[in-house]
Amino acid sequence: MLGRAGILGIADRRVEKCSGGQQQRLRFAMALVSDPGLLVLDEPTTGMDVEGRRDFWDAIRADAAVGRTVIFATHYLDEADAYADRIILLRRGQIVADGTAAHIRSLASGRTVRASASNLDADAVKALPGVDYVEARADTVTIRTRDSDAAARYLLTHTDASDLEITSHNLEDAFLALTSDSGGGDIPELSRPAEEGTK
Length: 199
Prior knowledge:
This protein is an alpha+beta fold. Helices cover 34% and strands 24% of the residues. Strand 6 and strand 7 (140-145) form a beta hairpin.
């Protein structure tokens, strides 16, 4: 088990002498001892370095490939996006979205427009059609919008914008859109893709 967890080289070390990431890997090895069919992990990569995280997820993928079910809670949305077949988002203890990463990303309609701009009128940008969110920090502006063309056109014609970038929403954008309190505080109706064979 220590080999699968990537800590065989520290088998003789006392636990209190291990780093946080090594202790996390030890917990993973201990969870595998009984060869469970279902593995439940809470924030499994907290404290791990980049290499440790990658090795951990390689081991989890290998386990899943042979039929082990793995359920994990994480705040690292990039990990959920890369490794989870199904993602459930919670807000105040209630499920607000349940589906694949692609399905959940699709719930956050629109795109993100980023640019460098020093003479930005944030109120004018907020008034553009389709704009949901504007953040200006130093000389960088981030706009979440359903009309990226209008936002880009405004930035290029009314500001000194440079380094303009338009991207589709990622899982973090969807998470923020679905769990934020800015929408009036009501928990949205559960968004789940239709099950096969149902209407």
